[in-house]
Amino acid sequence: MDRTRLHALLARESAEAERRNPRSRAAYADAGHLFGRVPMTWMNKTAGAFPRYLASARGARVTDVDGQRYIDFCLGDTGAMAGHSPAPVTEAVQRRFAELGGATAMLPTEDAEWVGAELTRRFGLARWSFSLTATDANRWAIRLARAVTGRPKILVNSYSYHGSVDESLIVVGPDGKGAPRPGNVGAPCDVTLTSRVAEFNDLDQLARELAHGDVAAVLMEPALTNIGIVLPEPGYLAGVRALTRQYGTLLVNDETHTFSAGPGGCTAAWGLEPDLLTIGKAIGGGIPAGAYGLSADLAERLLARADLDLVDMGGVGGTLAGNALSVAATRATLEHVLTDEAFAHMDRLSARFETGVRSAVQEHGLPWSVSRLGARTEYRFADPAPRTGTASEAAADPELEDFLHLYLANRGILLTPFHNMALMCPDTTEQDVDTHTAVFGAALLELAG
Ligand code: PMP
């Protein structure tokens, strides 16, 4: 990569973003009362000097306050995998909130059992409980796993992401031992007191860590999706299940992103048998919702424990969790939007996207790899594709990423700011994918000079 050329292109695209988006730029400059000038500090993770401000969004389209329109492959980093404001969810939300009311009445609705049954049909786990975010689903799953096993530690894969869960902010350090994830903000204690870590695709390391006998649960994505897509090698996931059973450790599959693999995520697609499963974001169709599922046996054992306060302040739950609005939105999303047919369409488009990107990369002889997990495709600046989170982290190239993101955004295409990820929703079209392929090809041509 010619860095001088890349810097010049990046400067050109930054200037173009300023020219195209004066109102977004001014709004950002005026946002002095916000911590970091944004509603949430991660919104500063954007290519260029300021974020584009949202005006409206529908299906696979976003319009910003400057009137620029985008094909949205970011889809809220999966929160909008159902498309923005899909009609069935809009109707369900309007009915629940405006007509019936009672979003926070602290009373159950009949929709919840429908959703529980549907989640069981899709993912296999027998009992379900709700949260508002995937982070909380993970937090509560971890607490339950500790309670039922009586063990203190949680094991995650290096450079995985499971939300702002204290236990998960651990990586494999240069000496091969667990170390705090770089940048961890205000850790409550040394993370190695609460956690163990292994590289994805490394069963030997996992076996060594589990052999200590102090791990309550392995919390993992069946494929890493937050450090590029890192796919499991043949036999790895079966090995994880065998080892967790051997050492009496529970297995929690976090399907928040890997839901892209199909209607029942990787768990159904690959016949996995986790003890617990967590999910968030997409299932609410744009309304905050999350859930965790557990096996019938685990649920019974937990409910039989008189010492666990599961109904008041014992540490599992939130006032708004399972609220009528979130549950109604989740039902509408699963019943009418993210259906089996929708996934088939999304998978087909994602394969088309993958082919387009791969051909362009090959045409330019770039040492990049492309990985796909159903409706989600991502390219990484390494070939062959990294097989661990740490290797994938090392393949990051922030300048190159910024250039590609800005180049695409200036031509009406949004990718997830955190990586080179493109997600399909039920409203994405072949034309959208082909537009991306053409613009991506043009970007590579510019890079080649
Ligand atoms: N789990 C996974 C796999 C995720 O990718 C994320 C967010 N990117 C989370 C959990 C946390 O989701 P949220 O921020 O909505 O709580």
Secondary structure blueprint with pairings:
Layout: H1 3-20, H2 22-30, E1 54-58, E2 61-64, E3 69-72, H3 87-100, H4 111-123, E4 127-131, H5 134-149, E5 153-157, E6 170-172, E7 178-180, E8 195-198, H6 203-210, E9 215-220, H7 236-246, E10 250-254, H8 265-269, E11 276-280, E12 290-294, H9 296-303, H10 324-337, H11 340-363, E13 369-373, E14 376-380, H12 389-394, H13 398-409, E15 413-414, E16 421-423, H14 430-448
Parallel strand pairs: 3-15, 5-8, 5-9, 9-10, 10-11
Antiparallel strand pairs: 1-2, 2-3, 4-12, 6-7, 11-12, 13-14, 14-16
Helix pairs in contact: 1-13, 3-10, 4-10, 6-7, 11-14
Distance between the termini: 10 Å
Instruction: Specify the CATH class of the largest domain.
Output: Alpha Beta
Helix content: 25-40%
Instruction: Kindly state the number of beta strands.
Output: 16
Q: State the fourth-level CATH superfamily of the largest domain.
A: Type I PLP-dependent aspartate aminotransferase-like (Major domain)
CATH topology description of the largest domain: Aspartate Aminotransferase, domain 2
Q: How many domains is the backbone divided into?
A: 2
Mean pLDDT across the residues is 97
The CATH architecture designation of the largest domain is 3-Layer(aba) Sandwich
Cofactors and ligands = 4'-deoxy-4'-aminopyridoxal-5'-phosphate
Strand order of the largest sheet: 4-12-11-10-9-5-8
Strand content: 15-25%
Secondary-structure element order, as H and E? HHEEEHHEHEEEEHEHEHEEHHHEEHHEEH
Shape: globular
> Which class best fits the helix and strand makeup?
alpha/beta
Family: Belongs to the class-III pyridoxal-phosphate-dependent aminotransferase family.
Cofactor: pyridoxal 5'-phosphate
GO molecular function, one term: transaminase activity
Protein name: Aminotransferase
